[in-house]
């Protein structure tokens, strides 16, 4: 893909770690979004072919130390558009996503999509509904909902805190000091593989325990270690 379009309207920042299996198809789909969309892939020291796969399919491919927050901040530093979208490599955008984001950012400083989890578990529709309701009530989004923001606002709040877990929650807290989010009803489709692999209810229980303990002041570093051990 050619270098970044000087007239880019939206920069999509995608943190990647060992996504070689599906990355080529994923980036090919994103490239169909058309002109004015800048695709930035930030690879967190993948041990597979993710980096070489991404190079011909993105406007910018950046090698980074691992850490999703670090990767997304680095991608935002290289973005040329006035609007940013942070997208996980297993999250698919709905039809018309670019125009929906830009329209929302005319009136809001930031926002997110609703989510639909895809996978085998029959509980995933319930999990999706719970995530959407929680996000609408609290104004806090998770990274797999496709968080977007005006680039100047994102930089003004200091971007993502470079912590190993809950970086999306902390970013939302920072952005909420400026405005409530635009809560788009269109749904991104994100992989429910962690619920499929570890069981829906055990994963729900783990996630709520981590959130509650984080709210009570347990450090993100400690929680990340427990999350890794639990997985």
Describe the structure.
By secondary structure, the protein is of the alpha/beta class. The protein has a single domain (10-196), classed as Spore Coat Polysaccharide Biosynthesis Protein SpsA, Chain A. Helix content is 44%, strand content 20%. Helix 9 (200-215) runs antiparallel to helix 10 (220-230). It starts with 9 loop residues before the first strand and ends with a helix. The model has no long low-confidence stretch (mean pLDDT 91). GO terms for molecular function: glycosyltransferase activity. Pfam families: Glycos_transf_2. This is Transferase 2, rSAM/selenodomain-associated. Residues 11-108 form the Glycosyltransferase 2-like domain.
Number of helices: 10
Q: Biggest β-sheet, characterized? A: 8 strands, mixed
- Tell me which oligomeric state these chains represent: single chain
The low-confidence runs, each spanning 5 or more residues with pLDDT under 50, are none
Q: If you average the pLDDT, what whole number results?
A: 91
Q: Report the radius of gyration as a whole number of Å.
A: 17 Å
CATH-defined architecture: Alpha-Beta Complex
The amount of beta strand, in percent, is 15-25%
Features:
231 residues; alpha/beta; eight-stranded mixed sheet; 10 helices; 8 strands; 20% strand; globular; Glyco_trans_2-like; glycosyltransferase activity
């Amino acid at each position: 893909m050619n270098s970044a379009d000087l007239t880019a309207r939206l920069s999509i920042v995608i943190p990647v770690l060992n996504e070689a299996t599906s990355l080529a198809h994923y980036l090919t789909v994103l490239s169909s979004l058309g002109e004015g969309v800048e695709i930035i892939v930030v690879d967190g020291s993948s041990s597979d072919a993710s980096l070489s796969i991404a190079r011909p399919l993105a406007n910018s491919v950046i090698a980074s130390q691992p850490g999703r927050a670090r990767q997304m901040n680095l991608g935002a530093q290289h973005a040329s558009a006035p609007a940013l979208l942070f997208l996980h490599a297993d999250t698919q955008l709905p039809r018309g996503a670019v125009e929906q984001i830009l329209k929302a950012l005319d009136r809001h400083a930031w926002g997110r999509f609703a989510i639909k989890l895809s996978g085998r578990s029959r509980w995933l529709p319930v999990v999706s509904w719970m995530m959407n309701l929680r996000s609408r009530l609290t104004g806090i989004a998770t990274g797999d909902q496709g968080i977007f923001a005006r680039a100047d606002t994102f930089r003004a709040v200091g971007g993502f805190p470079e912590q190993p877990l809950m970086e999306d929650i902390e970013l939302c807290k920072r952005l909420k000091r400026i405005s409530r989010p635009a809560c788009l009803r269109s749904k991104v489709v994100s992989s429910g593989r962690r619920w499929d692999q570890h069981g829906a209810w055990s994963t729900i229980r783990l996630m709520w325990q981590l959130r509650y303990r984080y709210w009570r002041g347990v450090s993100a570093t400690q929680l990340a270690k427990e999350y890794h051990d639990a997985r």
